[in-house]
Design brief:
single chain
């Protein structure tokens, strides 16, 4: 007698042999039908725009023939991509919801059939049929072989990653993709969308299939690409790689920032080689033979004193702008920073030579008296409309007197103003003390463009302290370190390390980097970064576990009128910050610029110390500060 187990086994084998071939054929065809729209999407260029990429014989150039209609004018060309307005239903997409539904159903049937089979149910003979269907369904996915996988990289389902990384085909000698489509921007004057009463002028339409597809993106007009950047579909720092055209990337990026900045802020900031030498003659440089272009990057927004500001930085040091931008992000995400003005006064200290130490003592006593100071003040202020003499501090060395005069200079940095007023004050002294001689208008106790303890202790220009509390979650997510680690690095490096080196005003990580970059961009005297970079950076962990950070900078020397601020490009950067020219209140714009400088320093300090704490400094510079080999 044949056992029940043998009968069940024979029955199972029979079911498998009968049903399995039929289900294999059906499920394979089903998989091919389900995935057929994916192939159709590939053949249509991944979004309804027909693209044909061909390589020339030399292998260095790629010709992109795109279905684009072109309207040309003298200075601009507008491009319109055909089929952009097609309904999404016109583009075939894989019906993945069917696959998900089948997965749920077959899983349920499989579990139920297993229960029937092992429970000696009279319906247990149906279980092998269900198992056969499950196996056939699984094997049916081999139907994907009907699709040419070489073409999948152009599908919208791949999000263009093959075009952005790892795909080195069709590249020129400079490592960037080249195209025969020469697109010029149409550059309106966009208005900041953040203002409730203003409206963005950049296109906001979603270009089907464009996100991540470099070929399609490059065929779009510049305003359309700028709209994608504003919409978060393209990272602004990826424009050079995405477009394969560095000049065009700059033009698009300008459109993006013109959306965020006050109207026409960047109109005078050149992005193509140009310089009006008439602006230079007699004001900024002599024996001119040309100019040195310095790249200007834009950091921000930085939350500062209740408003968001963007910070222009002119530098040739890779990673500096990117690192500062990371610091701005961390500060802004934590509620921003508050900056406070402690003092405001530019100084000049002439060296006066007396006939004896006794005469030097008498001169010093006269200056310190209220009558003597009043005479000096009247003479000083007779030479200027804005300058106000605030202090007169004599320092005696033998028979010499170094008279440090401090002057409020309004929105000017004030060196010319204080120098002219100093001459008038010296005339009062030489009249009262005829034997006194002026040795030098500047006796080096000012102190200008040199490291000195007097600036560190007494201040020069704008004395500012800025603080912010960085949330521990932001330190972890954005800065990739911990509060304890960054506090430890700051103490060991900026405090103990600087003390061991006998630094004067150098209790910071790299304040001079950010000070100089902002100075160059905004037309300040770059040599004054010496004293303007005086800074002590302090960090501690507060009771909530967050990072409390301060930067104290006693001698930031800046102005928004005069000097290099009148040049078009530098003036444009001041305009981007919102401090061009004189303020409504004398000195307000220059003081705000000092706060911005302090904000840039804090952001740079925060990011660099975080990189040191996480030991990612070298890696970042190797990635972002090395030019590719040609």
């Amino acid at each position: 007698m044949i056992s029940d187990a043998t009968v069940n086994l024979n029955r199972t084998i029979g079911a498998f042999s009968t049903v399995l071939p039929m289900l294999l054929v059906i499920s394979t065809l089903l998989a091919a039908v389900l995935l057929r729209p994916l192939r159709a999407g590939v053949e249509e260029g991944g979004g309804g725009i027909s693209n044909e990429v061909t390589k020339t014989q030399d292998g260095n150039k790629t010709n992109v023939n795109t279905n684009v209609s072109r309207n040309s004018s003298r200075n601009t060309q507008n491009y319109k991509v055909d089929k952009v307005k097609e309904d999404e239903s016109d583009t075939p997409n894989p019906k993945w919801w069917i696959v998900s539904l089948l997965n749920v159903l077959l899983t349920a049937f499989f579990l139920f059939s297993a229960f029937l089979f092992f429970s000696d149910s009279p319906y247990s003979h149906y279980a092998p049929l269900v198992w056969s269907a499950c196996i056939a369904y699984f094997l049916g996915f081999f139907g994907i072989s009907f699709i040419d996988t070489k073409e999948l990289k152009h599908s919208p389902s791949t999000y263009g990653l093959a075009d952005l990384v790892g795909n080195n085909k069709n590249k020129g000698r400079d490592g960037a993709r080249t195209s025969n489509v020469d697109i010029h921007p149409v550059c309106p004057i966009p208005i900041s969308p953040s203002s409730p009463n203003l409206r963005s002028k950049l296109p906001t339409s979603n270009i089907e299939g464009a996100e991540g597809n470099t070929t399609i993106i490059r065929s779009l007009s510049d305003p359309e690409i700028a709209g994608m950047v504003n919409g978060g579909k393209i990272k602004d720092h990826m424009l050079e790689k995405t477009l394969g055209d560095h000049l065009r990337a700059v033009k698009v990026r300008r459109m993006v920032f013109e959306e965020k900045l006050p109207p026409s802020s960047l109109s005078d900031l050149p992005s193509s080689p140009s310089l009006d030498y008439s602006k230079v003659f007699g004001a900024n440089c002599e024996i001119v033979v040309g100019y040195v272009p310095i790249p200007v990057g834009m950091c921000g927004p930085l939350g500062l004193n209740g408003e968001k500001v963007f910070i222009p930085m002119a530098t040739t040091e890779g990673c500096l702008v990117a690192s500062t931008n990371r610091g701005c992000k961390a500060i802004t995400m934590s509620g921003g920073a508050n900056s406070y003005l402690l003092k405001d006064g530019i100084t000049r200290a002439p060296c006066l030579e007396c006939t004896s130490a006794g005469e030097a003592s008498k001169l010093s006593t006269f200056v310190l008296s209220s009558e003597g100071f009043e005479e000096l003040r009247k003479a000083f202020e007779s030479t200027t409309s804005f300058g106000k003499l605030k202090e007169a501090t004599p320092t005696v060395a033998g028979k010499n007197v170094y008279l440090r005069l401090k002057c409020f200079a309004g929105d000017a940095m004030g060196m010319n103003m204080v120098s002219k007023g100093t001459l008038a004050a010296v005339a009062v002294l030489t009249a009262k003390f005829p034997s006194v001689k002026l040795v030098a208008l500047s006796g080096n106790m000012c102190t200008d463009k040199k490291a000195s303890a007097v600036n560190w202790l007494e201040g020069r220009g704008k004395s500012v302290v800025i603080e912010s509390v960085i949330h521990s979650s932001v330190v972890s997510a954005v800065l990739k370190t911990t509060v304890d680690a960054i506090v430890h690095v700051n103490t060991q490096k900026n405090l103990i390390g600087s003390a061991m080196s006998s630094a004067v005003g150098g209790f910071n990580a790299h304040a001079a980097n950010n000070v100089t970059a902002v100075f160059l961009a905004t037309g300040q005297d770059p040599a004054q970064n010496v004293e303007s970079s005086n800074c002590i950076t302090l960090m501690e962990k507060n009771s909530n576990g967050d990072l409390h950070m301060t930067c104290t900078m006693p001698s930031i020397e800046v102005g928004t009128v005069g000097g290099g601020t009148s040049l078009p490009a530098q003036s444009a950067c001041l305009k981007a910050i919102g401090v061009k020219g004189g303020g409504v209140t004398p000195g307000a714009n220059a003081q705000k610029l000092a706060h911005v400088v302090a904000g840039a320093v804090m952001a740079g300090e925060l990011s660099l110390l975080a990189a040191l704490a996480a030991n990612t400094l070298v890696q970042a510079h190797m990635t972002h500060n090395r030019k590719p080999q040609k």
